[in-house]
Design brief:
433 residues; Immunoglobulin-like; Rossmann fold; 16 strands; 5-stranded antiparallel beta sheet; alpha/beta
Length: 433
């Protein structure tokens, strides 16, 4: 039987300087589900709650028209085993189509066409729509279904705390993907909902992108082969964690965990799509030791195989202490590439905070450093996005204009998406410092 998963612990350097008091080492913990994305009869059926903003602003820029097109695409691609509920919200929430009515695809699409006729007000009460969708997903909740809530909105919502609470209270049963259209929505809220529940966050600058985003979500769900991944790590005595970041498929901070007496830490990874790495990048600080091989940690990856139960795979995190500085200059290209990508994301986030505080000069310097990093990596798309953001910052001195906010959201989306290098490019990163 072929292996269903590869799990590695890759240090940025295999050799550590014995005499260094606080040697900084990056460690990539990476799991990759093997096999084809989904074959005939092999994929898991869906159990979705689709939450659609139908507030007054959704009529701008033909947003509602593109939502209708996207949902019709979703309906056309459902199988009899899939369970999908469509919920619309404004000041109130209403079920437009249920798993039962979805059996008649033509009737379901007709109901979607009439979404603008619903008398549910013109405000934005996203928590009401989320709660209704969650309740419907729970009716068909099973371990052998892909349980997810998809949320699409274009504005600021009331009761943001309630939205976060709903996602966190139900994250063990379902994930949440959040899609923000335009520039008026709260991107921090949508990011948090998606990240906390291991779903996806999408910025949609052009409403015509909405059908493509729904297609991306559907293809990603079809590609999931392993469920509920979790990395457990036990650190050796004296090893400390300075930072932790999710490194793939998107980049975001996990915070600094509290390391207790048992020195055990856990990171939830969520479901794995075939061939897409689920990884965590750690910044460790190592104590001095005598020369020789040392195990600095033990890592395990726990996951569920649909229909076959829970499994796990273990690996050691090892390095070799040495007094030879030449050896310590050798780096792992794959790990250092991700370190650079994380550093760029951190620079972009810091620039945003400086700009919000009115420190325009600091913000532009940080963006300039980030651009230098993307140029060195050869990431043209990220370079263009960050350069566009810096131009807007210089022109407006603020993020309050529509153009500035749009370029910010575009830069966030590009910088957060992990860029994978080909083997030839990795050779450049493997050269000694």
């Amino acid at each position: 039987m072929a292996e269903q998963l590869s799990f590695e612990a890759l240090p940025s350097r295999q050799y550590v300087l014995s005499s260094a008091e606080n040697f900084v080492l990056y460690v990539l913990l990476e799991a990759i589900a093997q096999g084809a994305a989904s074959g005939q009869g092999g994929r898991l059926p869906l159990n979705l709650g689709v939450v659609l903003d139908r507030s007054g602003s959704m009529y701008d820029e033909r947003r509602l028209e593109f939502v209708i097109e996207a949902v019709k695409f979703l309906i056309d691609n459902l199988t009899p085993e899939d369970k999908v509920t469509i919920v619309a919200f404004a000041d109130q929430a209403r079920i437009i189509a249920s798993p039962e009515t979805m059996r008649d695809k033509a009737g379901a699409k007709h109901a979607i066409d009439d979404i603008d006729l619903l008398e549910i007000g013109g405000g934005t009460q996203m928590a009401l729509g989320m709660r209704m969708a969650i309740d419907e997903v729970k009716k068909n909740l099973t371990a052998n279904r892909l349980n997810r809530v998809l949320i699409l909105t274009d504005g600021q919502t009331y009761e943001e705390t309630a939205c976060i609470d709903l996602a966190n209270q139900n994250r063990d049963q379902m994930s949440f993907s959040a899609m923000g259209v335009g520039v008026e929505f709260n991107e921090k809220l949508l990011m948090r909902i998606a990240q906390d529940s291991h779903g996806k966050y999408h910025f949609i600058g052009d409403p015509s992108e909405i059908p493509g985003i729904f297609d991306d979500e559907l293809q990603g769900l079809r590609a999931i082969t392993l469920r509920n991944g979790r990395i457990d790590l036990t650190l050796s005595q004296g090893v400390q964690i300075r930072e932790a970041f999710r490194a793939s498929p998107e980049i975001y901070a996990l915070g600094t965990p509290l390391v207790g007496d048992e020195r055990n830490i856990s990171y939830e990874i969520g479901d794995l799509e075939a061939g897409v790495p689920g990884s965590v990048l750690l910044t460790l600080v190592l104590p001095p030791r005598r020369p020789g091989p040392v195990r600095i940690g033990q890592a395990s990856f726990h996951y569920e195989v649909p229909g076959a139960g829970e499994r796990s795979v273990n690996t050691d995190v090892t390095v070799e202490y040495t007094l030879d500085r030449t050896l310590t200059s050798r780096v792992n290209g794959r790990v250092m590439n991700l370190v650079d990508q994380v550093s760029i994301a951190k620079l972009q986030a810091r620039a945003e905070e400086e700009l919000k505080a009115g420190n325009v000069d600091r913000a532009t310097r940080l963006l300039s450093n980030a651009i230098q990093g993307t140029q060195r990596l050869g990431n043209t798309k990220a370079t263009q996005a960050l350069a566009g953001l810096m131009d807007q910052v210089k022109k407006t001195q603020t993020l309050q204009t529509k153009a500035a906010k749009t370029t910010l959201l575009q830069a966030q989306a590009v910088v957060r998406k992990t860029q994978m290098l080909d083997p030839e490019a990795l050779k450049e990163f493997s050269k000694p410092d």
